[in-house]
Amino acid sequence: MELHDHALASDLEMMRRQAAERRQVLRWLLAGAATLPLIGCGGGSDAGATAASSGAVTLPATGACMVIPEETGGPYPADGTNTNGGSIVNVLKQSGVVRGDIRASFNGATGVAAGVPLTIQLQLLNASGGCASLAGYAVYLWHCDRDGLYSLYSGGLTAQNYLRGVQETDAAGKLAFTTIFPGCYAGRMPHGHFEVYPSLAKAASATNRIKTSQFTFPLATLNEAYTASGYTASVRNLAQISHATDNVFSDGTGLQMATVTGNATDGYVASLVVAVNG
């Protein structure tokens, strides 16, 4: 625990030093970027990945305050709740886990995940508090790579920790991750996993999480994304599954379907409002 506290403290200090600069940059970006619709907005957007990645996320008019379903964290959470090869796997103990760009491994690991660029934008709202933005909360996000494999668990990737990271929400409850579009592995629709924590400090332990859930992508986006190089297996696997037959999304995707803009050449931006009982 001492090692973990030290690692998180280092990350927090680095974030504080850069906070003023980040806020100013965000103001500039927000001033000129087009806003993106989120789940419940009713429609898509022509805004490209570059503009959308500025964090210019707007609230939907309705439906934003329905609590996102609780879902399994799956077999590859790396949050200290399970083991692999007889050892507890906990990326939250590793220095550098608090980061926005999760494509590369960190804390001594050097692997980098290849694939179509993807920005994931989330906004946390308090469903039990009048849909107020949840500032200062934290999200731990993880997903598989282009080949459908998970760092720290899959064969050949146990020494890598890419496609995992923690971010803190800003005053508007927003955060963003830079990553790659996940592949489709046999038996599951493409998805991302995340855990919500009441603060960045409490993200140090999975026992403090207040929500575990998953999100997915529109079928049209998946079909387009998988035309890119490196996703051949995903094309085959996707043809054998659907949201209706997926063991997580078969009960509906209304609160877990990201709004996506972009294309397979320039990359995508996926946006989602996540309401929890804060």
How would you describe this protein?
It is built from 4 helices and 11 strands, in the order ααβββββββββααββ. It has 278 residues and is of the alpha+beta class. The strands form 3 sheets. Strands 3, 4, 7, 10 and 11 form a 5-stranded mixed beta sheet that branches. It has a 4-stranded antiparallel beta sheet with strand order 6-5-8-9, with no helix packed on it. The chain has a two-stranded antiparallel sheet with strand order 1-2. The radius of gyration is 18 Å and the shape is globular. It starts with a helix and ends with a strand.
Observed structural traits:
278 residues, alpha+beta, 18% helix
Beta-strand content estimate: 15-25%
In DSSP terms, counting alpha (H) and pi (I) runs of 4 or more, how many helices? 4
Residue share in helix: 10-25%
Shape: globular
Which runs of at least 5 residues are low in confidence (pLDDT < 50)?
Answer: 1-64
Mean pLDDT: 84
Order of helices and strands: HHEEEEEEEEEHHEE
> In whole angstroms, how far apart are the ends?
26 Å
SS-derived structural category: alpha+beta
Radius of gyration: 18 Å
Overall number of strands: 11
Sheet having the most strands: 5 strands, mixed
In short:
The protein has 278 residues and is of the alpha+beta class.
What does the secondary structure layout of this molecule look like, with pairings?
Layout: H1 2-32, H2 49-52, E1 79-84, E2 87-90, E3 117-126, E4 132-133, E5 138-142, E6 164-168, E7 174-180, E8 191-197, E9 211-216, H3 219-225, H4 232-238, E10 259-263, E11 267-276
Parallel strand pairs: 3-11
Antiparallel strand pairs: 1-2, 3-4, 3-7, 5-6, 5-8, 8-9, 10-11
